[in-house]
Amino acid sequence: MQDQPPRAQDDFAVAHREWLSERVAHYIGRPVEETVSLAEEGLDSVAALSLYGDIEEEFGPIVEPDDIWAYPTVRQLAGLLAMRDVDQGESRIRAAFVFTGQGSQHPGMTSGLYLNSTGYRAFLDEADAAIMPWTKRSVVKLILADDPAVHRTALTQPALFAVEYALARTLEEAGVRPVAVLGHGIGEFAAATVAGALTLADAAKLVSMRGAFMQYLPPGGGMMAVCVTPYEAAELVAAEPAVGISAINAAKAIVLSGDRAALERIEARLAERGIRCRHLAVSHAFHSPLMAPVVPKFEAIVRRMPGGAARVPFYSTVYGRLATEPLYAPYWTEQITAPVRFADAARSLLAQQAPTHVVEIGPQAVLTPYLRRMGGGPRGPVCLPVCQGPASDAVDLAGVISALDAGPLAAALSGA
Q: How do 382-385 and 357-361 pair as beta strands?
């Protein structure tokens, strides 16, 4: 970010002093002196909270309530507002974080980042320590060993959670604060943790238990991507009770999940209509009726955890919309068998939050093509993955961080 010329900075501070003087005068009922303590002027704690609300409404989250007392005069507080408003205004970046689901994992994922990025290494170690009591196996060692065991569901889910948590925290530490979050399947746990609805410790326990319970379900389940509408998909599964719609990724990008023999019957019917299907390389039929045996014991675990409301807008792929409800046990239990309504949730996020950037948080790009199409192409938000794939390293991460903090890029977007 380039520094503003001194004269421009002075004018900016004057504008903030004038605005702040007017608001303080409103609360104390008379004009104020810019160099006299607000407390001496008669501003009490209730008025200070109201003033804080005015600042939040006018400028966004640039101060905390305690700042009003730490910078006790109009001149000092206006200087703080001006300085932080310049920092915020120059960027114009509104980044949403979208967390990838199961299937994006690969042996050695983010190992280049771990070896060469001190920040990422610290956050992945933090997540690893939270997971270790439950899996008894180090996620870090699994990744650095290029171990194909990362595809075992009992390890996939905690490993993906750890990677996504660490990637998001690395971006946050660099100054990229999400305006909203969304997670696809297992990605919802990282999204909820970043949003403050789950603690790291609770999320680590839940993803470890969830993965272990699913690992030992009977074999025979599968997943199949089909190019049909949700309505057509509902007709297909109506005659096959062992199959369900597991994901709606776009208008005609549906994933069916369930008994393999039933999926093959559906595939044969679609072949008669000239519609091709693609079977996914998965160990189980996730988000399908075959997950039902997992639900009771997972519910027994999750109901003892507090959960809570997200402090960052959380777009639920269970509901397909902004979740205004706290994310308690029933939500995480329903999530096991519910379809992933990614398309609905992503469209709502794009429409309601108007992000300038959408960042796919995961070990490789999976959702970015869908997001780009939903966003409307060149005139929509910039959609970029934090990791392109197995070769991504600290240099690539630095490029993503630069793109998310670059004033010239944001200015170009606003004029597009």
A: parallel
